[in-house]
Each structure stands twice: as structure tokens, then as C-alpha cells.
Amino acid sequence: MTAAIATCTPSATAALQAWRPRTAAAAASRRSCRRRGLPAHAGLLGLFGSGSSTPQLANDEEGEALRAWLEQRGLPPQQLAAVVVPGAGRGLAATKPIAKGEALLRLPLELVLTPAAAQQRSCLRPLLEEAEAAGRPLPAWSVLALFLAEAHAAGATGDWWPYLRLLPEQTGCVLEWSEAEVGWLRGSQLHEAALEIRAAADASWQEMQPLLAAAAQRGLAPPGAFDRASLQSAFAMLLSRLVRLASLGGNSGSSSRGSGSGSGSGSSSSSGGSGPAEPPGTEALLPFADLLNHGPSCTSHLDWSAQDAAVVLRADRKYKAGEEVLVSYGDKTGGELLLSYGFAPPPATNPHDGVKLRLSLRQDDPVRDWKAAALARHGFAPSQLFPLRMQAAPWELMHYAGMCVAEVGSAADADSLAERLFRQDDFPRELQPVALEAVIRACQAAQQAYPSSLDADRAELEALQQQQQAGGGSGSGSSGAAPSRRQQVLQVLIYERQVLARTIFILQQELRDVKRLART
Ligand SMILES: C[S@@+](CC[C@H](N)C(=O)[O-])C[C@H]1O[C@@H](n2cnc3c(N)ncnc32)[C@H](O)[C@@H]1O
To answer: Which stretches of sequence are listed as region Disordered (predicted)?
Structure first.
């Protein structure tokens, strides 16, 4: 992990290339990052703490009960079977060789628990419908959380028990962390993201209070079903299992409600300033399909197929019989995965790993309002997070920095500069060095924000790893093979700073080149 900066080749071609003109088509996909020179990823290997590449079939009583329940509810024969994966709980493995592109999972609508389906089955249905009719629908993830809490309280007497009893008791997501553990993230943008996620869960809990009070008054709520702890664990479950089906329903799901604050599998992180609009689709729980574990380099997603009238997964590569099949939970960094799912893959296995860098319009900029309005027209907030990877940054980073540092004389000037930067991808030469310096300063400030030194964190991680190897480690996952939460946090924070250091190094090269060019 330490080699990245030391082995960096200082050449202009290794730079982030934020200045290079881009085509309109490339500009259209402006949320994407450049990726070059990333290490070959280790695929499945990172998953198997035991070093085994053949997961064990989950032939236990609970697995059998789930299989019978799924069959009874119309699950057709699948090419996947539940397996036990050391360090990752359960997973799904191919039961026969699978060709690339093959549809290897089909989950019919009866088994897709959308918010609308949850509302239909909920004991709170009359109240949820009344709230909807009054134009105050509960967010999607709150409806699903209420359903999960109700089904959990029903226990073995409920319809959903064979599914629920297989869900892990602890997900490892940040809603289950202690305050002290959340504090470990201080200095990183992840700290802000963690607090946002926890605040969203608290806000959702508060928001449902009037409905729960009405439910109690009308005798609709089973005793104890909707207490704080049950809802908190339902939110944690959703954070780590909810899947956004981009092709099912509209932005508001199959009912008229919005999609809430959850950020489960496949949904985008909401921690980037005002960021992009919530992606279209419906969030849903997918029994059986939600046993699929995340592969950082996977490109296949679960999605609704109208043609198949089912949620379908297509293989992004071929699989041997017995091999664990993975999906992508989204292009997430280790830190983002840790917050939502309780695990962080080793950075070398995760091509999406990196750090978020915040750039902001200066508070004392006399033309801040003009710039903010101009940025807003291109989808940017006055303060914005940009994802950095080891050798990659979104091209808008420099353009945004250009807006931050430019001197503009009028609102129209701010507009035309933004137009030039973001629409025409035309970066005024004279702005380049100042924008570069601004990004370098932002990276340096981000480095300074971590309360402990990189060396101290590296030493602690190494000591913990040695302890674990010697048998003294305390795994926080479902198996002792998983690294502890502290180890994963350290790994994430160390990598973030390595990416920042590398970015600074590359940008300083670029700055030298730009200044040299300006002199000639
Ligand atoms: C949608 S569930 C997947 C099924 C889960 N393994 C189970 O046993 O129910 C997501 C959870 O699986 C685990 N997980 C998924 N991918 C993983 C990976 N690559 N490494 C370690 N754990 C993983 C994490 O605990 C995560 O919160």
C-alpha cells in the first residue's frame, strides 16, 4: 500500500489531464472518472478469508426453509445456490457453468418487495394510504422499514419469516457503530457522510412518530413492533440490502412516494453537495437475490427486465460451477462500502477506491452569488465533493476550481465562463495555474484535517494485522476471518491520504508544465 506514491512516474502523461479538450459526447458523461494505470484487481480472492476459492453450499435448515418458501412463492429453478462465504456471510454460487451475458437469476415480481408491495401488506396500510392521499406520503425506505419491523415482530407466525430469519443480526453498517467508532472517521469526508446517514435515520424515525401515534390510537400496531431499536435495525438492514431497480417504476417508485434517504446497493451516494438528482427507479428488497455479495470490479447489476417480467442479473463474465457470483453495489470507495455495508475491500482490489475532495466557493468572494448561480445552471452546488482516485479525477474538478478562482465582473461574465468551462470544455489558459494551485491547496488542507499522522495509522494497522495473524484479532464480521472495524477504518483512511498525496504530486507536475508552457 505504501508503494503507490514512491513509484509514481513524474511525467506529464501521468497527470490527471484535467485540461485536455474533451468531446461533447465525453462531456455528456461528465460524472465519470478517468481511470488509468490501476492495479489489476484480485477479483474474488479478497472475499475468501480462508483462501479457498470454492465456497461451501449452505445446506442448513434455514437455507432449506428459504428455498421452500421461495419456490412456493413462484421462484423458478435458478442457476445459483446459497453458499457460505468466510468473512462475508452468505452468498450465491453458480450451480453450473455460466456464459458471459447469460441471465443467471430471475426473481418474479411476487418476490420483489417494493415500497408499494410493503404498504399493501402492512398493518399500517390505512394510515399510509391516508398520508399519501393527504400529499404527505412516508418516504420509501420508512415504509419498508415499518414493514420489516412488523414482519420481525410477527416472527415465525409471519409470512416472511423464512426470509427474515436468514438476515444477519448485525450488518456492520454505520447505523450500528458506536459514537467512538464514528469518531475514528474524523478528518475524512466519510465522517460527514456517516453523520448524514445517522441523521437521516433519526429524522426518518422522528418523521414517522405522528403515524405511529395514530396507529397506537387506532389499535393498528402490534405491541412493541415499532420501537426505536426495531426501526433502527430495520434501517440498518435496508442500508445494507436495499437495491435500486433503475428500470422499475418512476423516480417515486411504484407508489407516489419519494425514495427516502437510504443508500443501499446500487443507489448513489448522497454526500456530494447538492449532487446529481436522485436516480430514477424503485428501491426494493429482493429475497434470494440479496444474498449476492459485492465484487468491486464487477460490472453487472440487478435490474428489472420488463421483457422477462422479473428482476434479472446478467453475468458480466463466465463463471465455473461452484464459483461465487458477485454483483456490483455501485462504483463505491472502500469508505462508502464500509459505511453502508460494513466491509471495505482491500484498495488494491477496488478500482473505485479513493477519497472525496471538497471544493467550495469562497465565503468572502464578492461575486459568490453570481458564481453560485452560474454553477447551479450546470448542476453544481456552491460547495461540492469530487471523487479522487489514485490516478484519476473527474474532469469537472479543475473546471469547478476554475470557477472558484476566476475574477468575474458581472453575473453575465460568470455565466459565460461557466458555459465555456462546462459546456465547451474550453479552459482559459490564464486560469490554469491558479486553478491547479487551488486544488493542490484543497488537497493539502484535506491531508492536514486527519487528526493522526499517516505513519501512526500505518503502524497501528500493521500491529493489528500482526495480532490478527497471531490469532488475537477480533473480527467484526460474520466470521472471525474478517478484519476488525478499526482495521478497516485505518485501511480506508490510509488509502485516502495516499490518494491525496498522489494527486498533489501529479498536480504539482502539471503546474510546472503549465508554467513552463506559459513562459514559451
Ligand atoms: C446484500 S447483503 C449480501 C448477502 C450477505 N452476505 C448475507 O449473508 O446476507 C450485503 C452484506 O453482505 C456482506 N458483503 C457483501 N459483499 C461483501 C464483500 N465483498 N466482502 C465482505 N462482505 C461482503 C456485507 O456484510 C454486506 O453488508
So the answer is: 250-284
